[in-house]
Amino acid sequence: SASEARPVREALQDAIAKNRLKKKVGLKLTGCHGFCEHGPLVVVSPEGICYERVKPEDAAEIIEKTVLEHEVIERLLYEDPNTSEKVQLEKDIPFYSRQTRVLLAGNMLVDSTTIGDYIAIGGYEALTKVLTGMSPEDVISEVAKSGLRGRGGAGFSTATKWEACRQTPGSYKYLICNADEGDPGAYMDRSVLEGNPHSVLEGLLIGAYAIGAQRAYVYVRAEYPLAIEHLGIAIEQARERGLLGVDILGTGFDFDVSISRGAGAFVCGEETALMASIEGRRGMPRLRPPHPTESGLWGRPTTINNVETWASVPIIVRKGGDEYARIGTKRGKGTKIFSLVGKINNTGLVEVPMGITLREIIEDIGGGIPDGKRFKAVQTGGPSGGCIPEEHLDLPVDYESLSEVGSIMGSGGMIVMDETTCMVDVAHYFLSFTQEESCGKCTPCRVGTRQMVNILERIKRGDGTPEDLKQLEELAHTVKLTSLCGLGQTAPNPVLTTLRYFHDEYEAHVNEGRCPALA
């Protein structure tokens, strides 16, 4: 809808009707294909011919020439900027051909409002396999073999979390799907929920069987109305098919799912704050232990994973944990979706194997930096992530490697900056965001981030001193070490990494009253 795909669909419908092709030509509005910079996309199947930046006035020509006369419309094809060659097939466009699409593959095939489309590509096969031939222990063992780690932040072992919740005594247990995607520029979870919501529901169903849970909540921010709408449709369709509710598929397994709308507080991405919000309280974190798997929602054992993690589960069960583990590295298995934005030619959603290098994502898939500018830094992990300079472009993207250079994987935001970006301004922007989003419960985050913002504002104005730089770094370390939750613990990352890798820019602001990036 952001790229006006619906008017294009309506124009195509009119052209199909005009040519009396309703019984011969099907039209499907799929989820986001990820190539945001070039939408709306129209893919003509079964050939896979891909037209980009399609307008409603192109619809008649597509139906009359490509569908009826089997002619390719050259002007609507993607043109490779490096070779100036036109690319006919979607799969051959470099943006797609260099990705490994596992989770996003369904987005390109199904109408998210039609359960039959999901079933046609193997949907709910994994659930049937689980309910008719696997024990809960078998399921957790398969997830353990896959090496799946949580895709929402720290990368904790999914199987370990599930097993801990399963072993906790309790007659009633909950699951939560964390879709509170608060990072500026991030829209991975939104696109999966909009484009393939049944994959998340199937993952929740399998997880519930393995853990022994009776109910799940999908916590989605209210700013995602289409995701909420499509998820609601999917839940109702699953209930109608006997896939949710009482005695699922006649196996005696009971489980249901509800949607909980978040109000957009960034801190509610933290597990305990999220649970407080679902319970109707102010979203504020609490000390751990006890962990949610021991005492979570309404004091009962609760397992929380994010959208990508739940959507990975049916694939693991269907293909086998060992097969899934073939993708990625020893420390990071499977794929990860990133929203690639900023000073980059190809903005959009990219799904890549764990362990791919930053250079491959930015240069090969992202197409490099526009307007002949030089790459300067990339921030991974959203506002809580660090800014990684050119010297680390060949760094493999996994949890440990990013941590070693001061950044995080986070939920998957990836913001690219060029030589005209002021790193002091970047640190100020992201720290201001996290400072405003702080719930205020703990003093280090509430007061410390405010003091850091004040120092950065002085430096930006040209009023900073060498003592300010020293104090800024000391405050950043203190806030990181002493804050209550992940928001405060990671908020200093943009400051610490820019001080570490771009200290000369801070010195130029302080000692010379100028910004080298704007010179």
List the helices and strands and how they pair.
Elements: H1 5-18, E1 42-44, E2 49-51, H2 59-68, E3 78-79, E4 86-87, H3 94-97, H4 115-120, H5 125-133, H6 136-146, H7 158-167, E5 174-179, H8 188-195, H9 197-211, E6 215-221, H10 225-240, E7 245-248, E8 253-262, H11 271-278, E9 302-306, H12 307-319, H13 321-324, E10 335-342, E11 348-353, H14 358-365, E12 375-380, E13 387-389, H15 399-404, E14 413-418, H16 423-437, H17 443-461, H18 466-482, H19 486-490, H20 493-501, H21 503-512
Parallel strand pairs: 5-6, 5-9, 6-8, 10-14
Antiparallel strand pairs: 1-2, 3-4, 7-8, 10-11, 12-13, 12-14
Physical arrangement of strands within the biggest beta sheet: 7-8-6-5-9
Task: Report the total helices.
Answer: 21
| Overall mean confidence score, pLDDT | 94
- Work out the radius of gyration: 24 Å
SS content category: alpha/beta
Number of strands: 14
Q: Return residue spans where pLDDT drops below 50 for at least 5 consecutive residues.
A: none
Shape: globular
